[in-house]
Amino acid sequence: GTRLAPKEKLDIPMLFMPDTMKMYEAVVVIHVMRENGENWSYEDSAELNKDLKSSVTLAENGGIQGILWIYPLRGIPEAPQQKLVPAVVRCRARQRVERRVEVQLTGVVPEANAMPAGRNSTMVNTNKPANIQEEIQVTDVEFLYELQYQSNEVKSQLGALVGMHLIQRERDTESGIVTLIFNIVFAPNKPMRNEATLVVQCATRGVWKFPMLFIATEPEVDDVINIEAVGLNKESIVGFKLTSPTR
């Protein structure tokens, strides 16, 4: 029963309050009819193609009684943000380091007796052997992951220096918590300290976010140059070569 004037805009507010980590889908249907009750004339209304029939409602006399706009909606729940300790990946500049990072998700597998969503984010940066939980088959669950940066400048500086690969997936049969183990490669070319966010999305459940911190310390000294004085108030000169690793 909403009346719209010509060229008028209509805002339709949406509210999404998920209580579980589960993907939701819905459809918003807008049905428009003339205010005077008349139909729109359409000569070939009896021969409308299949796609157009789904977008109109036909009257008995063959005219078009209403027009439909159909908008699909997808509700993607995001795990509550918690003050987690960032997983720190530290390396000297001009060197390369590999670290294993574990993230824990709850509410991923429907059969699991998962904890409430309000307690569903923990993170551990560890190098201990990956035998802490019983490994089960979670290959039917698809996980997407990426590193997000605070700005495009940080992304351009750090994006090419970090590599990430999901190497293992496990689930605890009692709690239903799924553990993802990533292999992180960090090869900085100069000292830096940048933050990033590891974003994990399950195709049917939701999104989890975990903070990360990449630290590149000062590189090792390349060489020591000794200059011996030839006498007071006299210059001593020593030469050395510098080679650029790029063009």
TrEMBL record:
Transmembrane segments: none annotated. Residues 78-217 form the CFAP47-like immunoglobulin-like domain. InterPro entries: Ig_CFAP47. GO terms for cellular component: cilium. GO terms for biological process: sperm axoneme assembly. Signal peptide: none annotated. It holds the Pfam family Ig_CFAP47. This is CFAP47-like immunoglobulin-like domain-containing protein.
